[in-house]
Design brief:
alpha/beta; about 400 residues; 2 domains; Rossmann fold; single chain; about 45% helix
Length: about 400
């Protein structure tokens, strides 16, 4: 179906995503909602299909003129990422109900194109529905799906490759991911690299940040999920050494997950409780206010895609100290606009944070660099324009 001038409002897109905000205060998959909202404002009609994870989530709701449909899934009130092993029996039901609801919504709304987020697990549903109803299919690879495929030599890798080969187009959220997918033998011409975006409100925080701040303590901030992959324990282990050199600090941890109890015990064991605050899950709309109060952003994850929280911190003028992993190297030049640190050396992490605290010139120059990078490469209007170009090409076929 082609796009004709003046008829953009008739193009209906189905988002099929494994992650989407489950209730009003949830930021689980918040960047998917942001993308959908921007595309809706650009004249597309967006419908969302996603699994129902929590009891308090609605089966159906309307948000900003977008309709959200949730299919049943015996999740045990847990995200898939929280399972230690693949719940195969639950996933059979996931795929069955997901396929049925996706077909129903696509037919009901007359969707012209399917945009899947995560090749695993929702990508497989997208391939089946696209084949069944003869619709073009875009699959966005976010990172965890690629990681699972790379670490597996069996079923997950086969599913990932099957989805990638069947999709009309693949989008990776970083150039690093794009190269990894190409190494797996996927045709280069069908892969783009468009990251998720940053709200311009975060850049307002960065631009309005004062050079000299009269404050009682330097604030170190982490907002990664409290799950094993995010390795938050490394940051907590670094706090005693930082305090010995720079006693006027505080650590704010804004995140939720199964590791919280262990991390709280670790804080008590290290006797740093007065300097560490756990906020739990914070609504995304409050994140820029927390970043405005912060000086140093830390992410110690073992693996990642392009981290939206990193991009938001860069835009807000918060100095990033992050894992030395491929996805972060795409955005951070060590010692220029942030620091890259090993994922297993708390002493190295502590030294870098101390170095940042004592180097106001580095804080200033990095802030200027990061504001430029985010404005040029990562704000939503820039990336939505690229997504629209993809849609235009696929809707012509």
């Amino acid at each position: 179906m082609g796009i004709r001038t003046g008829e953009m409002e008739k193009n209906s897109i189905l988002f099929l995503t494994n992650a989407y905000p489950d209730f009003e205060t949830s930021y689980h998959g918040i960047f998917i909602k942001k993308m959908a909202s921007f595309l809706q404002k650009e004249g597309y009609q967006i419908s969302i299909v996603t699994p129902k994870i929590y009891k308090e989530s609605h089966w159906f709701e309307e948000q900003d003129e977008m309709q959200v449909y949730r299919f049943p899934f015996f999740s045990g009130n847990r995200l898939l990422i929280e399972y230690r092993k693949i719940p195969y029996l639950r996933m059979i039901f996931y795929y069955l109900t997901g396929f049925i609801l996706t077909v129903y919504v696509l037919v009901k709304k007359g969707c012209d194109l399917i945009h899947v987020h995560w090749a695993i697990p929702t990508g497989l549903i997208g391939v089946w529905v696209a084949s069944f109803l003869k619709k073009p299919l875009i699959v966005t690879i976010h990172g965890s799906d690629l990681r699972m495929a790379m670490e597996s030599s069996g079923l997950l890798r086969k599913v990932f490759l099957y989805v990638c080969r069947k999709a009309n187009h693949l989008n990776c959220v970083s150039e690093v991911q794009k190269k990894e997918v190409e190494k797996l033998g996927i045709t280069q011409g069908k892969i783009s690299a468009i990251p998720m975006g940053v709200d311009e409100a975060f850049l307002d925080v960065g631009e309005n940040r004062k050079e000299e701040r009269n404050k009682q303590a330097i604030t170190i901030f982490s907002n990664r999920n409290l799950l094993p992959n995010y390795n938050v324990s490394l940051l907590i282990d670094a706090i005693p050494k930082i305090l010995r050199e720079e006693p006027k600090i505080r650590l704010i941890i804004a995140g939720a997950g199964e590791e919280r109890e262990n991390l709280e015990k670790q804080v008590k064991r290290l006797k740093v409780s007065p300097f560490v605050q756990f906020l739990g899950q914070v609504p995304h709309q409050e994140m820029r206010y927390l970043l405005a109060q912060s000086d140093i952003y830390v992410s110690t994850s073992f693996s990642d895609g392009t981290s939206v929280s990193l991009l938001e911190a860069m835009g807000a003028g918060v100095f990033p100290v992050v894992s030395d992993i491929p996805a972060n190297r795409e955005w951070i030049v060590n010692g220029k606009n942030g620091f890259l640190i090993p994922v297993d050396e708390e002493g190295h992490l502590a030294n870098r944070i101390i170095q940042v605290i004592r180097n106001q010139a580095l804080l200033k120059t990095s802030r200027e660099r990061n504001l430029f990078i985010i404005r040029e490469k990562a704000i939503w209007p820039v990336n939505i324009r690229k997504v629209k170009e993809l849609y235009t090409e696929l809707l012509k076929t």
